[in-house]
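Database export, one record per block. Field names are fixed; values are copied verbatim from the stored entry.
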Amino acid sequence: MNAERAARQILDACARGDAEVVLTVPAKLAVLAQAVMPNVTAKLLEWADRLILPDPGGIGKRSLPGSESRGVLPDWVTAHTDRAAEENNETKGERAPG
């Protein structure tokens, strides 16, 4: 989602006094899934955690850019986020692979 659009929606929600705002369609679907079938949603998130995220334990005291902590995600999955990070000067000079 475009940062300016997200900011506008957040400010509008604040002006209305909304306690929360869900910005994207995937996030809205996740909220709905959690409400309708919480146990199934929890199990799916558990499987995603095991398959996609890096193993626990970290890298000790070393430091790596976020682009190095993708786990098994292919570049096409993170392309939109990578572009947004570059547009918002959040890459600290590193270039995402691909």
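Remark 1: The mean pLDDT is 83.
Remark 2: Residues 51 and 83 are 25 Å apart (CA to CA).
End of record.
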